[in-house]
Amino acid sequence: MTKRQATPEIATPTPAKERRRAREISAEPAVENVPRRKRAGKPPKAREADFVVIGAGSGGVAAARRAASHGARVILVERGAIGGTCVNRGCVPKKMLSYGATWAAILSGCLSHTGGKEDWRDAIVRVNAEVARLNASYTQRLAEAGVEILHGEARLAAPTEIVIGNEIVHARKTLIATGARPRALPVPGGELAGTSDDVFTWQTVPASIAVIGGGYIAVELASILSRYGVKVDLLVREDWLLPRFDHDISRSLAEALAATGIRLHFNTDVTLLSQTNGAVEVCYRQDSHPGRTQTVRAQAVLAAIGREANVHGLGLEEIGVKMGPKGGIRVDRQFRSSERSLYAIGDCMAENIHLTPVAIAQGRWVADRLFGKRGDIADFDFVPTAVFCEPAIGAVGLTEAQAIEAAGGKADRIRTEIKRFVSLENRFGGNAQTSMFKLVLNARSGRVLGAHLMDNAAPEIVQTLAVALRLGLKTSHLKSTLPLHPTVAEELFG
Ligand code: NDP
Asked: What is the whole-number distance in angstroms between the Cα of residue 185 and the centre of ligand 1?
């Protein structure tokens, strides 16, 4: 444990000093070619810290604040806006745009509101105001916690030696929490496709868009943009949406999205993007039409085909940090990389669940372990998850397929209960959209192994269900608990 008052001056370990000196010496000849003005510049300043956190996203901020609360001297390095993907280019602006889209759709359905593209302008102003409020609030809370923020690009000269512009920081421990970034579309013309990052900078929406991908981001953006009046084509590589979700739910969602006017193209293999007369043409092949190239033309294209670890330029490979096959940082159960003083959490890890609360839990656990009390890590078996499309999806626990696999392939050991209904909200909106609840059960004990819900209330319900599942929820508990009427959640009971 390291308390700020008690922390002795940290001596840079000799090998790092020697390595640095060796680098400086070996760099001497190159200096001859550097223009005089640069050579005469100030030598880098060296500072010391207990904990340097690189990346001020949800995980990094949580780790930095927690470590500071234990008295550690913490420096948090960020090259962009405080708050990272979740606050600036992900969860928060996405969810707010989704609220705007839902309200616009409800209002246009029953209260003679115009709806559509005009609403985007209003929505993005509100989103930007909230993102700015969060940036300021994060910065203030970090300052109050005693965390120093350095703005700039970090590079590791050694596991505990971080170079940020003109500064060098020697850290006892370093945490990489740099997150992930959208993967580029690997086809000719792929650079014509934007990513989810771009959407939040739009002042207006295009008339039409082709969205490539079938995961969380593609589905959420397709649904949001469609509700702002954009004509959407969704090109999915598999023959179902949301590969990690229960198939009954993804099938029902596909029907619901199609009913809202989104054109879904399954089994597509996108081969080429080209610009033609102010539009982008997406060429793709489909198993159902072998040998024939098909096209979709749209004013804009978005690729949401997964994200890759944001580790480029950090110098990790140069200092010998082992990376996973897809480029993320390999860590042990304590989030320690192959370099013992270097840790990684969140989306930049080689294997992880890419969700904000997961990164936060990991960041706090690492900070506690290094500077406070060693505690239990959160349970990652029952991580609730949601897709904020319309209707929304919420899920926790095993899908039917996963449950059967866990039962050694014995399908008779697993039972499911499925309910379909039209919610009061949709009745009010004059919309016959069907909601769906599916429970995956142990056939003998009635224990709930997984819950998969499709309704706009699903994410809120699933958050609480996650606790119940962890505590061993059975159908008998649901039957013996009185439901709250009228709610969507009551459909789980009785
Ligand atoms: P996902 O991993 O969820 O989905 C990627 C999709 O793209 C898959 O359907 C994949 O198909 C497809 N794909 C991959 N390569 C290609 C290709 N070359 N051409 C066409 N399709 C391709 O990634 P996302 O980008 O949607 O999201 C990234 C992460 O962000 C997720 O892991 C998620 O956890 C997180 N996130 C969470 C949100 C939430 O909690 N609501 C919201 C947004 C993001 P295939 O299966 O065939 O590889």
From this structure: 12
Calculate how far, in angstroms, residue 219's C-alpha sits from the geometric centre of ligand 1.
9
Q: Which CATH class is domain 385-492?
A: alpha beta
Closest residue (by CA) to atom 7 of ligand 1?
305
Give distance in angstroms: CA of 252 to centre of ligand 1. 19
The domain spans of the chain are 16-181+309-371, 190-305, 385-492
Q: pLDDT per residue over 245-271, tens digit each? A: 999 999 999 999 999 999 999 999 999
Whose CA is closest to atom 16 on ligand 1?
Answer: 305
Q: Which pLDDT value is given to residue 176?
A: 98
Atom number in ligand 1 closest to CA 241: 9
Fold of 190-305: FAD/NAD(P)-binding domain (3.50.50)
Distance 317 CA to ligand 1 centre (A): 26
The Å distance, Cα 98 to ligand 1 centre, comes to 19
Choose the residue to mutate in 235, 237, 242 for probing ligand 1, maximizing ligand atoms within 8 Å of C-beta: 237
Ranges under pLDDT 50 in the chain: 1-40
91-110 vs 216-227: helix crossing angle, rounded to 10: 40
Q: What is the pLDDT of residue 262?
A: 98
pLDDT at residue number 104:
74
- Nearest residue (by CA) to ligand 1, atom 11, is 237
Domain 16-181+309-371, CATH homologous superfamily name and number? FAD/NAD(P)-binding domain (3.50.50.60)
Pocket of ligand 1 (CB under 6 A): 186, 212-218, 220, 237-238, 243, 270, 304-307, 354-355, 385-388
Domains 16-181+309-371 and 190-305 alike in fold: yes
Ligand 1 atom nearest to 187, measured from its CA: 18
Respond yes or no: is residue 485 known to be catalytic: yes
pLDDT tens for 372-424 read 988 888 888 899 999 999 999 999 999 999 999 999 999 999 999 999 999 98
